[in-house]
Amino acid sequence: MQLQSTLTCPHCARAETLDMPQDACVVVHVCVSCGARLTPKTGDCCVFCSYGDIPCPPVQREGDCCGGPMDGAR
Fold first, then answer.
1. What pTM did the predictor assign?
2. What's the gap between Cα 19 and its chain centre?
């Protein structure tokens, strides 16, 4: 299980390596470079699954996040 992921901002392309929580979804991340507010893409549970090079720990462990398919509501 990998607990760090490098998020790449889709607005300014800044890459930032962050620690991921093992038991929670991160649904908002603010880019430290351009200030863009990143939220998960439709179908993804968190910003790590949408913009990271490594998916979040629940997806790594179980193949899905938060117990089921995502509808973009989280």
1. 0.83
2. 11
Cβ–Cβ < 8 Å for 27, 46:
yes
Q: How far apart are the first and last CA of the chain?
A: 23
Within 1-74, where are the H helices? Answer: 47-51, 57-62
CB atoms within 10 A of CB 72: 11
18-61 pLDDT, tens digit each? 999 988 889 999 999 999 999 999 989 999 999 999 999 989 98
Nearest one of 44, 58, 47, 55 to 9, comparing CA atoms: 47
